[in-house]
Each structure stands twice: as structure tokens, then as C-alpha cells.
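Archive entry: two folds, one per protein. Generate the first.
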Amino acid sequence: MGMRFNTYLVSIGSATIENKEPDYAVQPLNLPAGRTPKWPTLVVETGKSQSHHDLDRVARQWIQKSAGEVKVALTIKVSRTMVTIRRYGRSGITRAAVLQTITVEKRGQNSPVRVAGGPLIIPFIDLFLRTAVRNQADITFNDTELEEWANIVWKSF
């Protein structure tokens, strides 16, 4: 993308849904006029023992209870053989929907890793609350990067 994210994003942990902070949340360092700093623009919820249903419920709540101020919710469900990433966003005025599902699967110790549904794309405007300029663009994690993420996760099992 041609810029350092940590210069333009700040990690926040003050917003809660049902007394739960997200596993990770960020918002732009410079918020547009009138935008409350209460809500992040992106939240991440991860789960190893949680079900997809539980992660789905929480991701939808972040978007809906913030009245769309949370623009992107990512859930990352991990197991020994699969990492599933879902990107949620607004659907209509008040609803949240799964906009993208990516699976990274390892069927056996010596079998190749398979990525389906990639690349993971986080729209620039949703994260930074402004249009991209010059060399700025959507944040894209290609299949190779997704495979590297999964391999790092699997090493911890």
C-alpha cells in the first residue's frame, strides 16, 4: 500500500459489546469531523474453542450496535487443519452480512495448503474513513500471505 499503518491507525480497546472488548480493534488516527472516537472502524474476533455461530453473532453485533460505525468485523476461527476468516460489513441500513469467507486448509502433514476465497480485502475507505489518494489502496492479503498466517497459527498447536 505504500504507507506505514501504525502511523495512521491507533489501537483502541474502550468500546464494548455486552461487556466484551474485541480481540483487536483500530480506528484512524485522524477522525473525520463529527465522528465519535467511541467506535473502531475495524474489529477482529478470534476463536479456537468458540463456534462459528458465536463468532458470527459477535461480529454482527459490533456492526449493528454501533449503528454502522464499525465498518469491518473480521472473525478468525482456527483449528489444527483449518483457518476460516470471515469479513463482515453493512448490508442495507441496519443489518450486517458476511461479505467474504476465506478458508486456509491443511489436509495432512505433507499435503499442500489450500486457500479458497482469497485474497482478503479490507476496503481503504472503511478502515480510514476517507478515499485513498496517490499510492494508497485497499488493504489486500494475497493467498501466499494467508497461507503464511495459517502456518504461523498451526505452529502454535
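Generate the second and append.
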Amino acid sequence: MKFEPGLAAVVTGGASGLGKASAQALADAGFKVAIFDVNAEAGEAHAEAIGGLFCHVDITSEDSVVAGFEKARAAHGQERVTVHCAMTSRRGKTVGWDKASGGYKRLSTEDYAFGAEGVLVSSYRVASISALGMANADPLNDDGERGCVILTASVAAQDGQIGQVIYGSCKAGVNGLVLPMARDLMDLGIRVNSIMPGIFATPLMLGMKDRNPAMWDQLNASVPFPKRLGEPEEFASLVLEIARNGYLNAHQFRLDGGIRMPPK
């Protein structure tokens, strides 16, 4: 995809972390960026900083996501790049010891369903609604490309750790969307890929730096090379390359400094 000034992009979770960096990079590349997030204060501030648009969107709500796309398209036109970074999930072992009851406790089906909605279902929701809009847009080039969707999986999709039965399996499901969705959309000229970030210096992880410096140093040392957490800007750089390179399709990209996660 040639980055022409004025092309539109949507970034979910664009108020912080990987999404914020992706929104910044796309704006710097000339895109009109709509940020979808539930954090209105941070989302509006970042949208203003990059000359974009903030849309208050709850990715677990069909109506909210549809309304977000409608608002973004009314302001910027049809998005040609969608980057889905937002998610919500829960944590717990399939069966673990419960101190309160003094016995074993099963991770509830309701907790699993919550994570499935916040990770996997929301990924399908955002990707398919965006693809429907792209399908009705004019091709951008001689290849017939109409746009691309970039989903965020995780190294946990392949290296799920103890307590990540929800997160790991649902992120694996995100990877599982990529090939069949890319094949579904191939005749429409819409590409689909995913990125599996390793341990990145997002606000959640940066909070550990002060709370537990020893754990912070251990995490940095666990990365083969370079021995540090990934920078959100490095994630955003890959987002741009996937969007730019029209031959990247139906692929899951691991971005992790070579790390392979241990059981815990």
C-alpha cells in the first residue's frame, strides 16, 4: 500500500501502549487516524496531539464498535488500515488452590467467556466490521488492494504460561483468525496479519519498574537480545511495514527479541 496523504486508519486501544505508538506512527506517515478507546481523557489528548479523532468505543459492544466506525468514517472517510490493540481479559489457573475455601477451585466458565469476548470475539468484531467497509471502497492500486487489518496476538499464543489459560488460548485464536479471514477476503483485496509481541514496555509493565525493581531487571535479562523490553515504537514500526508491504498477508509475526516464555 502506498502511503498517500489523507488515507484513513483506525487504531483500537490507541490511548496508551502499543496502540498509542501505532496511532502516532500512522499519523506521522500521513494517515488521518481515529483512536478507539474507553479512556476518554487519554484518548482525546493523544488524538489532539496527532491531529486525529477520538471515538469512545467499548470493543466488547457491537453497537459501540459500529458507532465508532461510523463516526470515524464520517470524519475521515473509509479506513484503509485497521490496527486492533485493545483487549480485556482475566487470569487464573484451570484448577488452582483456593486459600479461602481450603480446597481446589476451578476457573469459572464465566471468567473464560469474559476473556474470550475481550480478546477473540472483539478481534473478529473489529476486523470484520472494518473489512465490510473496505470491501465497498475503490481499490488503491493495480493489485486491487483495498486495505489491511492488523490484529494483536501475543507470544502467549505459542508460549502460554501458568495462569494464562484464557489469555494464551484466546490469543492463539486471534492467530487462528488470520489465515481463514485472509482467504475469505482475498478476492476483495483485503490483507489480514497479526503481530505477537513479547514483553513490551507498556504502561502496565513500566509500573513494575518502581514497584519491583528486581523483577524488572529479571524481565529485561530474560530477553535473548537485545536484553530489554520491547519499545512500543518498535511494534509501531512493524505495523507500518505490514501496511506498506502489499505482499505481507495471512501471516503471524513474532516480535519478541528471541524470547521463549517459560512455564511461569
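Annotation attached to the second fold: The chain has one domain: 8-255. The chain has a mean pLDDT of 97.
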